[in-house]
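User: structure tokens for this one?
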Amino acid sequence: MAFALVGGLATAAHVGLALFANTRLEAGPLAANLVGYVGAVLVSYAGNARLTFRRRVFDRAQFLRFSTVSLAGLGLGQALTYVATDAMGLPFQVALVAVVVIVPAFTFVASRLWAFAVAAESRSAPRDT
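Assistant:
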């Protein structure tokens, strides 16, 4: 439930900032998507660290793993945006729908299995006696 809430907030930040950059600042689709991404990643990391996975927000190794997952998500989002707008000629809003459906699913799985998992495994691992 927490991931959905944080994801919803991050998605709203992404969409709001991307549309603002595209319509008000006249940024192209890729630049607008990047603006949305930057805002969303800040919301996503803090919210998921604290609420979803119950980890400290200020953990360097965790943040680096999350950043790796996030950058992979950015690459996926940019690729989806490019294919939809440039290769297929679809409106940016259509590309944005694909981005906000596919990328969060990818980042949840990667975050759960890797970015935030290491700290949980080390705490719950049995101790050698």
